[in-house]
Predict the 3D structure of the following.
Amino acid sequence: MASPQKSARRSCSREMLDALTASLQEVATAWRIYRRQPDMETLHNLRTAVRQSRVLISFGVYPEPARQCGEHLKQVARTLGPARDLDVSLALLQDLDKPGGKKCTAAYRQLRSRLTARRRNRYTAIHRLAETPGGKTLHRHISRAIQELREFEQKARPEATLHTGKVLVEKTVRRIRRKRNLAQSSNEQKLHELRILIRRLRYLHTLMPSLFTRETQALYEKLRTCERRLGKLHDVDMVLQFLAEAEDAALQPLIAEARLVRRKRRKRFQDAWKKLPKGFQKT
């Protein structure tokens, strides 16, 4: 007899089907809103909806149209990510330069100008995607996937409604716990890997909160705080990356300021992590 973990990988519950249907509808809505009003907020909402659907698709076995839709969402995600990173980095750069404006040198202005041009190009790429066959047919792929999911749902076993999803929650928590040593790292890639793992749990909670017991709900709330603080840490890591790429000694005061902010944000994350149960602490 197959183990619960293997069953969870091969099947999906009725609640998972409903969650993916709702998530795909959210993508379609966010895509329409972004096309009408492309800005930092609508881009963020679209990117979140796309990520959420991709994570849910990775959790279960769905009809072929849903998997095909997942491939299209992957292409969209690759286009959205760099634009969002530039949005956040430009906003943070402005905050870093606020104290007296003393760091607003010619080198800083040139850096902002280059990053702004790159952001403009990224937004143009998203616009082009919307006008290509791949972008125009995204709604059709989503509509077809939703229709197939609803038909597939009629064949799903009602008794599997909660079991498969709860196994996924437990499995995701175990994966985070196994990777607990990443929390002690100062490496941006390792910390980002940890953030992605916690994010998967967040998407499960957002769409299927009934899968969480009182214990996993309490744990999730603490992990969510950790994820938020990891996100703030990732933002400053992106800024440091752009500053390093500039290779300009005149930017050193800004780099020093960014490193100071990073140390403070890393400490805030570590303080939040220490509040997790002993099983999540360093071994």
